[in-house]
Specification:
Blueprint: E1 3-7, H1 13-30, H2 40-51, E2 57-64, E3 67-77, E4 88-96, H3 105-119, E5 124-127, H4 134-142
Parallel strand pairs: 4-5
Antiparallel strand pairs: 1-2, 2-3, 3-4
Helix pairs in contact: 1-2
Length: about 170
C-alpha cells in the first residue's frame, strides 16, 4: 500500500476541505462548544487556495492509494512584542481519517510540519488540543509535547438560545 506525505496541491483542496469539516464535526462531538458553522466548508474553500502560495503557511497531506486521508495545517507564529521574540510555528490542525489511524500517518504529518518549521528557523512548535480529546493528548505526549498553558471557558449565559450565540473560529 502506497502512503505519501507531501505538500498539498490545488487538486487536493476539495478532499482536504471534506477532511477539515470531518475534524470540525469530530471536535463538536467531543465538546458541544465547538459548534460547526453552516458555512464552514465555504469559508475553507475561500481561504485554502491562498494558503498554498503563502510562505507563512504550510499544508501537508497524507495520501494513500492516491487519495488524501489526512492533513496538517500550520503557520508561522510570532509572539506579541511584550515577549521575547522566539520564532514558532503554530500547528492549527492535524487530522487523519479514523479508518487510517494507527498506521503512522499522524506521526508522519507531524514530522512534515516539524521539518517545515525547522527549515523556516522556528525554535518551537505550538499546538492546541481539546481537553476532551484524550487520544490526541496522548498522541502529542508520545511525540514529546508538553502542556504550556491551559485555556478555560466560563459560561456567562447558559440560558442563551443557540441562535444568539456567536461562532468560534473565522
Amino acid at each position: 500500500m502506497e502512503m505519501e506525505i507531501r505538500t498539498a496541491r490545488r487538486a487536493d483542496l476539495d478532499r482536504v476541505g471534506a477532511l477539515w469539516l470531518a475534524l470540525l464535526h469530530e471536535h463538536a462531538g467531543l465538546d458541544a462548544r465547538f459548534g460547526v458553522a453552516g458555512d464552514a466548508l465555504q469559508r475553507w474553500k475561500n481561504d485554502a487556495p491562498f494558503w498554498l502560495s503563502d510562505a507563512d503557511r504550510h499544508l501537508a497531506v497524507a495520501v494513500c492509494e492516491g487519495e488524501p486521508v489526512g492533513f496538517a495545517a500550520a503557520q508561522r507564529w510570532r509572539p506579541p512584542p511584550i515577549y521575547a521574540a522566539v520564532p514558532e510555528v503554530h500547528l492549527d490542525e492535524l487530522y487523519v481519517v479514523p479508518a487510517w489511524r494507527g498506521r503512522g500517518l499522524g506521526r508522519r504529518l507531524a514530522g512534515a510540519v516539524r521539518a517545515w518549521a525547522e527549515a523556516e528557523g522556528a525554535e518551537r512548535l505550538r499546538l492546541g488540543v481539546l481537553a476532551a480529546n484524550a487520544d490526541a493528548r496522548a498522541f502529542w505526549e508520545r511525540l514529546g509535547a508538553r502542556p504550556l498553558a491551559l485555556t478555560y471557558t466560563l459560561v456567562l449565559t447558559p440560558e442563551a438560545a443557540p441562535e444568539k450565540r456567536g461562532r468560534l473560529g473565522f
